[in-house]
Design brief:
alpha+beta; elongated; three-stranded antiparallel β-sheet
Amino acid sequence: MDLSLDVLKFLLPELLITHFNLTTHKVQGKDLHLYFEEKKAIPDEFSKGLIISHGFHKETTIEDFPLRGKTVLLHIKRRRWLNKETQQVVQRDWDLVAQGTRMTVEFAVFLKALSQY
């Protein structure tokens, strides 16, 4: 199965496609697993200091809208950045996961709207 980035732009949150690279994917039974790593581009909010990539946080798995009867699981690895001047580890503040869930914000809002009917 070849997943084109152009097709994924229509299916996944724009933030994910813009700031993360799809590293691999696999289908296991009724689950589609998509693996993403944050791009190695220094965040604008940290560009004033001497910042270097400092590895990744533990992978987070969240659920997104199902596709063709498959549960879509997004495996996301966010970067850590080291400020060489302060020795402080910094990171971007992503709003990918709905509070109190393991779902994308859009999917959680959709399910909440459905439950109100």
